[in-house]
Write a structure and sequence with these properties.
The protein has eight helices and eleven strands. It is of the alpha/beta class. It binds 1-O-pyrophosphono-5-O-phosphono-alpha-D-ribofuranose.
């Protein structure tokens, strides 16, 4: 059995569709249920839904052989896994955003709200700017509106959340998308199966983008 960790939610359902089209179906997974683990013994696959930010933990520790994780999570946690493929979906970017018209006063420490402390620290170190990180778990956009911080570092997809809160992107840190990742030991022992699956999924993606 190949254990596959999928990110729970909209992206996960889309990604499951790729596995299905590549020849690894498990239709029960789409039923309206609270179940989290689904098997198709005939195809040798066991899928399970986990919180998107936890996928890389399951894969790194070997509880899952492979999984699908956002590049944001990979950049933030630097898990010791193989990144097998860019699935070219779930595209968005990691960006610095600030209230419209914000001017950075470089003589002061910049206060930054984010869920992504490591990405933020690395980015500002690379441009030599002093910062004070305030770690939040969600609704990051509120921080500069209420004066908790000057700017935020967060994921921007359509830009709607920023626009509706009178914020704008001031710089892009990284382009993001969903990646297929593998546990290093599992890849060694199940390489043939994993490679075939990866190839199948990438072929499906290629067809879809035509
Ligand atoms: C993410 C992100 C932004 C929003 C960006 O939040 O943190 O808030 O999506 O999307 P947009 O550019 O299309 O508006 P998420 O919905 O994951 O919730 P969160 O507040 O818990 O971060």
């Amino acid at each position: 059995m190949l254990n596959i960790a999928l990110p729970k939610g909209r992206l996960g359902e889309k990604v499951y569709g790729m596995f299905e089209k590549a020849g690894y179906p498990c239709p029960e997974i789409l039923a309206d249920t609270r179940k989290l683990i689904f098997e198709n013994p005939e195809k040798g696959v066991r899928y399970f839904w986990v919180k998107p930010s936890d996928v890389s933990i399951y894969v790194e520790r070997g509880a899952a052989d492979i999984g699908v994780a956002g590049k944001d999570i990979i950049l933030e946690y630097s898990p010791d896994v193989y990144e097998l493929a860019d699935l070219n979906t779930g595209k968005c970017r990691m960006a610095v955003a600030a209230p419209v018209g914000f001017k950075d006063d470089e003589t002061t420490t910049l206060r930054v709200a984010t869920k992504f402390a490591n990405i933020t620290r690395r980015y500002y170190a690379s441009i030599g700017r002093d910062i004070d990180i305030i770690h939040l778990n969600g609704s990051i956009e509120i921080a500069p509106i209420l004066g908790l911080t000057d700017v935020i570092v967060d994921i921007v997809e359509t830009g709607t959340t920023l626009r509706e809160n009178h914020l704008e992107v001031i710089s892009t840190i990284a382009q993001l998308s969903a990646r297929l990742i593998a546990n290093k030991a599992a890849y060694k022992f199940k390489q043939k199966f994993i490679d075939e699956m990866t190839y199948g999924i990438l072929s499906v993606r290629k067809e879809e983008s035509k």
